């Protein structure tokens, strides 16, 4: 069913893109889903359609696509109209102008995608072919479009979108994340629905942050909302595009989505410098013209483009401007390198311990490093201050660092930390970072630490250590998160800690640094911090002797 909205599409005086029409599409349960339909001007149809779906409401499309508005993730709508595409932007159930109650990607929201796609295909202006488009929430909706498998869905191109909210956002490694409730739902979804750029205000009443708290393990609530459970059902062509710097939220979803999707597929991963730059990149016409238009033209218009001739895997390598290719992910030509944690000092960094990473098994049988928490010198999360009074992220955490590299080292793929540890508590958290530590700067003489760049991260709550053997691989542990088991204080346990995939070239003269703490900081994580709860008072011991040889496994790719 289609009904026209009689109120003005835009608030008077607001400049921006105006929909051709606003429609209400009746679902099979009677709820009406609102959508803005944008049609090419002065072009003869019918047109293939791009579908964008989110709770960020189409009324906000009049706001400029700037990094200030991180939810402006549709891509350049007007540009696609000029190229002969219709663009349909739907407000998901319970958001914007759509009826019903919002329930965050539940089965009903997923079913709505099927019905809207089939409605599009029946319209006189439609060619009958529909493709998914968009970043982040829009990308996650595309995974579900593919899983729902409506007959007229022709392709999806999820950019920067995870496939498992529990593991990639709400409880990374089983550790509660601050992002879902504090930043995303209250600060974004509720705010931009209640105070939109145009259109009627909408208060989203359901308490998603409370629901997250009520489901601390991977139960039916999360399973229903997890695209990863059903990616094999996707049969349409998939162009999965990830961003290395979104390691805290979306990156692994694009990689897992590529690996498990059941139809034709390709993977592309970028090195956007920040969360804001990822939005800027996706908003740019140059990005869509170079990468996405050939994909859409091929599968929505049947045009001959260079998309199919491109390698199955393309990725930009951090630390370089190099675009490398492979036939699969991870690439087949990787060599695993093992680095053992050992006592220091290296003299290269000021930290709680200044430990070393070495190629040979340490000779001492019972070597260990203990740290107490919370550290009295932590100021912003686990970050202390340097001699100049500025934040110093490595000064008050554990570090293990290699010697200065004698030649460039390129990592490509997932990393794994095998950690032998004990605690005075019945549970503890491990937050792991792998960084490139550059050569000391002139300020080193003043006691300042050398410059560095975080390359990738991993997380694990000790009680969530149980692995799923069906999903785990040698280099990528996969946790069940179903039945947390406390640890016995003082007992040594082995923890296999998944460190997110990366592609990064460490330069000769730099050092590879492993950082360990039981918390993190807004200084280094931006909005992707994890809460530090009152029970986290005690001490942990990292064992790194020959008897309990903690070690870091690196996926090394030969440099051409």
Task: List the keywords.
560 residues, alpha+beta, Rossmann fold, Jelly Rolls, 2 domains, eleven-stranded mixed beta sheet, globular, disordered N terminus
Structural class: alpha+beta
Write down the CATH class of the largest domain: Alpha Beta
The termini sit apart by 58 Å
| Basic shape | globular
CATH topology description of the largest domain: Rossmann fold
Q: What is the mean predicted local confidence, pLDDT?
A: 94
Strand portion:
25-35%
Number of strand segments: 25
Can you summarize this structure?
This protein is an alpha+beta fold and 560 residues long. Helix content is 19%, strand content 28%.
Description:
With 560 residues, the protein is of the alpha+beta class. 51% of the residues are buried. The chain is built from 11 helices and 25 strands. Helix 2 (107-122) packs across helix 3 and helix 5 (179-194) packs antiparallel against helix 6 (208-214). The protein is globular and about 75 Å long. The strands form 5 sheets. Strands 13, 14, 15, 18, 19, 20, 21, 22, 23, 24 and 25 form an 11-stranded mixed beta sheet that branches. A 6-stranded mixed beta sheet has the order 1-2-4-3-5-6. It has a 4-stranded mixed beta sheet with strand order 9-10-11-12, covered by helices on one side. The chain has 2 domains: 21-310, Rossmann fold (3-Layer(aba) Sandwich); 335-556, Galactose-binding domain-like (Jelly Rolls).
